Amino acid sequence: MTDDTNARIDALVKDNKVLLFMKGTPLFPQCGFSSRAIAILDHLGVSYESVDVLQDQGIRQGIKDYSDWPTIPQLYVDGEFIGGSDIMMEMYEAGELAELMADKGIAKAG
Questions:
Q1: Considering the chain, what percentage of its residues have pLDDT values greater than 90?
Q2: For the residues of 77-101, what is the DSSP string, one character each?
Q3: Number of domains into which the chain is organized
């Protein structure tokens, strides 16, 4: 990964309270895992930003190196890597994801 790509990813992660690196967009997710991640965030009703990794090969590979996590989507909250869609689902079902959002003061979308 180039330093430039790493710096861009780092800036995105730090500049957005809730950020989802995904395949596609929230309106048109391009894989089932990204679709599920969006559904979870939408159900929680939180404001979030997304990055379509299909639009940028550097970020598509770079985010895997950045997080040391092999798959996309990837969720970051308050600059911290949370996990992919399976971890999001487990946390959501246990009530932990809603609790995390509340603890971090993440505002409801509205």
A1: 94
A2: ETTEEEE-HHHHHHHHHTTHHHHHH
A3: 1
Strands (E), 1-108: 18-22, 49-52, 74-77, 80-83
d(CA 97, CA 91): 5
**Residue 107: predicted pLDDT:** 75
What's phi and psi for 74, nearest 5 deg?
Answer: -135, 130
Q: Is the torsion defined by CA of 29, 51, 23, 85 positive or negative?
A: negative
Q: Would residue 108 count as lying in a domain?
A: no
At 82-95, the pLDDT tens digits run 999 999 999 999 99
pLDDT digits (tens, 9 = 90+) for 62-82: 999 999 999 999 999 999 999
Structural domain range at position 70: 3-103
